[in-house]
Write a structure and sequence with these properties.
four-stranded antiparallel β-sheet, 12 helices, single chain, about 350 residues
Length: about 350
């Protein structure tokens, strides 16, 4: 698989019949990041030698990627651990400098970290925090107003909107150390959006949260995007986040973009077919190749042309059966996509 040709094919597919977006607000051209990592021989002798004669090797984290993201898009930027997605996110926010290539975000060069650039973006990381631990979240909101030099009337209007959308009123005046993880994460989102950034970078925003709070966070991000037109770039290992928030999927593996398109296009390219789920008398379906799915149903994945004949046979044998046809889980499709990408990488 050649990454460039895949990206062109998939990018066009994402546009057909999809939402309309504005001009590009993120542009990457041959973006590359290489880390220089020290090496040493094993054992005590190797440690001693490294004190006087240290050797290094180059580790390529991001390998010359090209990408455009338009205003208002919600993009899932996905990959396995070590794929390069967090490194890319840090270059887009100016926390890391590229080794080569170029990137612009909201018309700025991120590594310059200009004040107007910082007002245009926000970065929310599920395992990091910006709130002051011993103070109420509201005090951190006041501090952010001063840091971003926000007009008090506009700040208060935005804060009121965020408090209502995230349902913060009951705990916004409690010390942060007394909040649950879910409450703290909702306050983190509010703090990150008080300056109304044009671009939201979300890195594992629901990690560690319970199901109810995850749903609140997803709904909030979607509503904020739709109401204010903010661009969202999401990295997550939770496919429920991706399915709920992403219009477009960008897959990166070993520092190279492997796919760029819609979820439907992803299923079409890497899916194995349609999954037929049946709840009914299992014995009567013997010989059709069904297997238990772990929830009291039987399942079988078949190519799309075989779905209708299989359904007819199932209902002929068990007329009262409950039958559902679904696409394979997103995790399964992504696993297949990354597996194929690695095979192609090795072969080239």
């Amino acid at each position: 698989m050649e990454a460039d040709s895949t990206a062109r094919f998939s990018r066009d597919g994402a546009r057909d019949g999809g939402p309309e977006y504005g001009c590009a607000v993120i542009t990457l051209q041959a973006l590359r990041k290489v880390y220089r990592v020290p090496e040493k021989e094993p054992g005590l002798l190797g440690s001693v030698r490294s004190l006087w004669n240290r050797r290094y090797k180059d580790v390529v984290a991001v390998d010359g990627i090209d990408l455009e993201v338009s205003s208002g898009e919600r993009v899932g930027f996905l990959g396995p651990n070590g794929a390069g997605k967090t490194t890319t996110l840090k270059m887009l926010t100016g926390l890391l400098h590229p080794t080569s290539g170029a990137c612009t975000v909201a018309g700025f060069v991120p590594k310059e970290r200009r004040p107007d650039f910082l007002r245009s973006i926000t970065l929310v990381m599920g395992q990091k925090q910006q709130l002051l631990w011993d103070l109420p979240a509201h005090e951190s909101f006041l501090l952010n107003r001063a840091l971003y030099d926000l007009d008090r009337t506009e700040w208060q209007r935005t804060l009121d909107e965020l408090v209502a959308l995230l349902d913060l009123s009951e705990f916004v005046d409690r010390p942060v150390r007394n909040l649950s993880l879910g409450q703290r994460m909702r306050c983190e989102l509010a703090a990150a959006l008080l300056h109304r950034p044009r671009i939201l970078f979300l890195d594992e925003p629901t990690i560690g949260l319970d199901v109810e709070v995850q749903a609140v966070v997803r709904r909030f991000v979607r509503e904020w995007n739709e109401k204010h037109g903010a661009t969202v770039v999401l990295t997550s290992h939770d496919m429920n986040d991706v399915a709920a928030l992403a219009h477009r999927i960008v897959l990166i593996d070993q520092g190279v973009i492997r796919f760029d398109g819609s979820i439907d296009a992803l299923h079409e390219r890497f899916g194995t077919g349609r999954r037929v789920l049946v709840r009914g008398e299992g014995a009567a379906l013997a010989g059709l190749g069904f297997e238990p799915d772990g929830s009291g149903r039987l399942q079988k994945t078949v190519p799309p042309p075989e779905v209708n004949p299989l359904l007819q046979e199932v209902l002929r044998r068990v007329p009262e059966a409950e039958v559902t046809v679904a696409t394979p889980p997103l995790e399964e499709v992504l696993t297949r996509a990354f597996g194929e990408a690695r095979k192609d990488r090795v072969s080239t």
